[in-house]
Structures are given as C-alpha cells and as structure tokens.
C-alpha cells in the first residue's frame, strides 16, 4: 500500500508512468480510440470506468509535464480544419484544463492538436491509458518532463 497515489491509478499504470522518461509521450484515450493501431509500440493500460479528464487529473498528481521544452505539453484532439466539423468548445477540454490548473500548471500549457496530427504524434507514444470517455474528441497527449 502506498500513500498519495490516486485510487484510479492502478499498479500497472503506476509502473508504466515510472518507466517513462523526459520527453516521452502518454495518450489518455477516449472509449473509441484504437490503441493498437494508432499507438502500436505503446504499453496499453485499461482505466475503464473513468473519464479522460479524471485520468488527466490523477496522472498530473504524479507526472511532471515538459514545460521546459514544450509549449503545450498537454494537447487535446480537435477536428481537422478541413473536416467540416467546427468545435469551439468541449467539456472534456475544459475539464482537463481545470485539472491542469488544479495541479499547478498554467492553462497556456494546454493547446489543440488536429485529429490527423494527434494520430501521427500518438504513434510515438510510450503509454496509452484507455478510459470510458464517451464524449467526442476526448483524447489527450501529455509529454513528460522532469521533476
């Protein structure tokens, strides 16, 4: 038993977070994200029963973001510009930004990344955390920093 570990962080996820290094990429995925085809080399951890922003919040309690080398170390998926889908706001994004600020980061550390670029970057992920997030565009990329 350990103290200070959020209850939604299981032992497999805790180990995977500890194994990551500076600059490594973590995907917090919604229910629809295909982890094996989009992040084929990543460790895939199931965190079902949780929303994506809940997992972002829990992870940020343990995981430093790369604020020194990355302008937006937390990125949220938005529709591609040429998709015809316009989304100015999304609850999942807002909730993740609240979690970001609650864990000591400025909201400017978060930014959008278009869906196709998200998938490209997620292909380099070390870890994918699969949630039960059902709201559209509920996927996030976090880049690990140093303590």
Strand order of the largest sheet: 2-5-1-6-3-4
| Low-confidence sequence ranges | none
Total beta strands: 6
Portion in helices: 25-40%
The geometry reads as globular
Q: What portion of the residues fall into strands of 2 or more residues?
A: 15-25%
Molecular structure report:
With 147 residues, the protein is of the alpha/beta class. 29% of the residues lie in helices and 18% in strands. The protein is built from five helices and six strands. It has a six-stranded mixed beta sheet, sandwiched between helices. Strand 3 (74-78), helix 4 (91-102) and strand 4 form a beta-alpha-beta unit. The longest helix has 12 residues, at 91-102. It is globular and about 50 Å long. The model has no long low-confidence stretch (mean pLDDT 96).
């Amino acid at each position: 038993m350990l103290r200070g570990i959020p209850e939604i962080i299981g032992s497999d996820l805790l180990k995977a977070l500890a194994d990551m290094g500076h600059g490594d990429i973590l995907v917090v995925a919604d229910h629809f994200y295909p982890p094996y085809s989009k992040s084929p080399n990543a460790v895939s951890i199931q965190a079902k029963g949780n929303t994506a922003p809940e997992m972002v919040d829990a992870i940020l309690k343990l995981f430093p973001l790369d604020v020194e080398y990355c302008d937006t170390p937390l990125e949220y998926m938005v529709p591609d510009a040429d998709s015809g889908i316009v989304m100015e706001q999304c609850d999942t994004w807002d909730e993740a930004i609240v979690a970001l600020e609650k864990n000591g980061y400025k909201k400017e550390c978060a930014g959008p990344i278009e869906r196709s670029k998200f998938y490209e970057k997620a292909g380099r992920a070390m870890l994918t955390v699969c949630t039960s997030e059902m709201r559209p565009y509920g996927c996030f990329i976090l880049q690990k920093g140093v303590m």
